Amino acid sequence: xxxxxxxxxxxxYLLLVSLAMLFGFSFTLTRIAVLDVPPxxxxxxRLLLAFLMLYPLMRLFGQAMPAPGRIWIPIVAAGFFxxxxxFSLISWGQVQVEAxxxxxxxxxxxxxxxxxxxxxxxxxxxxxxKLVGVLFGLAGVIVLMGVSAxxxxxxxxxxxxxxxxxxxxxxxxxxxxRRLTHLPRWSVMTALMFASCLMLLPFALLFDTPWLLRPxxxxxxxxxxxxxxxxxxxxxxxxxxxxxxxxxxxxQINFMVPVFGMLAGVLLLGETLPxxxxxxxxxxxxxxxxxRLGTKTGxxxxxxxxxxxxx
Length: 311
What we know:
Blueprint: H1 10-33, H2 39-60, H3 72-93, H4 99-106, H5 109-120, H6 128-151, H7 155-176, H8 185-208, H9 217-245, H10 247-250, H11 253-269, H12 275-291
């Protein structure tokens, strides 16, 4: 059922742009963090700190963690595909891959979601425009990876593929969270952080031996920044935007995140991106735009998107 909402105001657009900037900046922070902190420890650190910040807010709004039972099955699955796996893959990939390129790879997520939704749902089938949009996105990925695939068949390509796989993981999560949209949002978000952290913690302790790490203050600050900004604060902003304007309005962020991510890498880290990266960005953004054609103004996007607009 569609809910009537007021016309977006300047404050709504400021919230949306600010959230896109947070998500785009996350790739720069990750690039800094991986200099001294192993990928699993980065993922666990941002999830644990975000949980500790979200839990008191959840209680403040009169909500509680979901009761033990079957509902935790989709929560754990969403925690894995929406946080634990992609956070780990992105961090591992960014050991070699620039922040700007990472943000462009991640931009294919909404297009992958369209393909998966066509296969696994009954009410989100491919339309003509969605198919054209997916083809544009595929062309963008080919342009982005084509050159490097020819001259870097080793570690670089593997790490790029890991980042692309994380976009697929987010898309899978978009379908899983269809099972969670009926629950109180603060409760779900906090539970997702808790489950994600819990499943990664044993591996981080086993493989990273974090008690032996001696990270620089820059890397520690980057992990803290990831937890506060793109994880905890971004979660709060998502809830505010969805409450005010709905998931359809929020979905416009897919156009902005790769642009802000690319700019942050270039301006803050001094990255120099190859020409094919800019061409690929255009292809992918056009694909996202084309896939939205034919959608009725004011209609809502699938509920599965509401809990997945995170990086």
